[in-house]
Design goal:
Elements lengths: L5 H6 L2 E3 L2 E3 L1 H25 L4 H20 L7 H26 L4 H8 L2 H13 L5 H18 L6 H24 L5 H22 L9 H25 L5 H8 L2 H12 L6 H17 L2 H11 L5
Length: about 325
């Protein structure tokens, strides 16, 4: 977090105790989690009839094609270091998906959901360990609340120890990507950087899909529809939005915003797929949002603005 100068204070919608509150960036990150939440229903149907690693490879291939027209001519602006940073971030994205999926094959869905959400805790810990980023008490309380909410929402059940460790490794990889993006995002062109990320993830996942003997031409609108939506919106535009937002938001703020993903997944599962959650799970959703509001006071004002819509203009 940064202190507010006079000019920045005039440009910043909200300030809390002398700190810059990136309201627009946080709102965009919340919107990204909503996109990930709604596409979960499509992905669940698609991977039931098409191999998962092949699906992920094609998803990032479509994401790369989406960003190629505006991004290719900007690649030179990254320089060697920028391309290397983008490749590192992209390898973390691809690696996180591989580890999470490998763990999911060995453990329960509930355990996978909760352990993946542990990046809410791992992100500030990695930021502290790598970059010595100090957090205030409110941030730690918010992280604790969000973690508790994830546990209530997911309903932790005993799974395979090996599977749980793989999923935890995936969560750590996601956290590292978020922490590094706090440093990378302000330095490089967002479109070119995200294109390198998507190309790297695509290349890595193609190797995994080929090694697993899964790569084949998909058939049917169920698979192709999910590929197009996730490739364009949940990958290309979502990670581009993350790159843009992390020019303004800290790694911890990003992780807290991303903790809303299981909340959106529960909501869209309820409205679109007929899933029904118990009282404990809905309590978990409320606790997650409470944690975000405690850790980031401007989050409450963001939620009010989103509810009010055009009336706030």
């Amino acid at each position: 977090m940064q202190t507010v100068s006079g000019a920045e204070a005039r440009r910043t919608p909200f300030t809390v105790r002398g700190l810059i509150v990136p309201v627009r960036a946080l709102a965009i990150l919340v919107a990204v989690t909503a996109v990930w939440g709604v596409t979960f229903v499509q992905v669940k149907d698609a991977v039931a009839i098409y191999p998962l690693f092949a699906f992920l490879a094609l998803r990032f291939g479509i994401a790369s094609c989406t960003l190629a027209p505006p991004g290719l001519r900007r690649l030179r602006s990254l320089g060697v270091r920028g391309v290397g940073a983008g490749a590192l971030a992209g390898s973390l994205v691809g690696g996180g998906y591989v580890l999470q999926t490998a763990g999911l094959e060995r453990t329960t869905v509930s355990s996978t959901g909760f352990i993946t959400g542990m990046y809410v805790v791992l992100t500030p810990l990695l930021a502290l360990a790598i970059f010595r980023v100090r957090l205030g008490a409110a941030a730690w309380i918010g992280v604790a609340l969000a973690t508790t909410g994830l546990a209530l929402l997911s309903g932790v059940h005993a799974g395979s120890a090996a599977g749980d460790l793989l999923v935890l490794a995936g969560a750590a990889v996601y956290s590292l990507q978020i922490v590094l993006m706090e440093r990378f995002a302000p330095r490089y062109d967002a479109v070119a950087f995200t294109l390198v990320e998507m190309l790297t993830a695509f290349a890595a996942l193609v190797v995994v899909a080929v090694a697993a003997g899964q790569l084949s031409v998909p058939h049917g609108w169920t698979v192709w529809g999910a590929l197009l939506v996730t490739g364009i919106f949940a990958s290309a535009l979502a990670f581009l939005a993350q790159t843009w937002a992390q020019r303004r938001a800290s790694a911890t703020q990003t992780a807290l915003a991303f903790s809303l993903e299981p909340v959106w997944t529960a909501f869209f599962g309820f409205t679109l797929a007929g899933d029904r959650l118990g009282a404990v799970a809905w309590l978990g959703c409320i606790v997650i949002m409470a944690g975000i509001v405690v850790a980031e006071p401007a989050a409450a004002q963001i939620l009010v603005r989103l509810v009010r819509g055009p009336r706030t203009a």
